[in-house]
Write a structure and sequence with these properties.
With 83 residues, the protein is an alpha+beta fold. It has one domain. It contains one helix and four strands, in the order αββββ. The chain has a four-stranded antiparallel beta sheet, covered by helices on one side. The longest helix is centred in the first third of the chain and has 15 residues. The protein starts with 13 loop residues before the first helix and ends in an 8-residue tail after the last strand. 14% of the residues are buried.
Length: 83
Amino acid sequence: MRNVDRLGVVPGSARGRAVGRVIAALMVEGTLPGPGDVSALIPPTREAFVRRVPDRNLWIWYVEVGAELLLLGLTSEPPTPID
């Protein structure tokens, strides 16, 4: 996943565990996007869903392709939702 190192997400750290919990939840949810997920654009034109890591200034960007969940990136900037 893009930006993990740059954002200081280290395996085993509190931040790393928080990101891991969100990824695990995404992988087992029956319906995506979830109620708190937003649709946003990845510049310049690609659309993805975004879920915030609770209690962190981190957002996980993802898309579903068929039965697969693709994790696109992790950002510290909140997304601008598509209206």
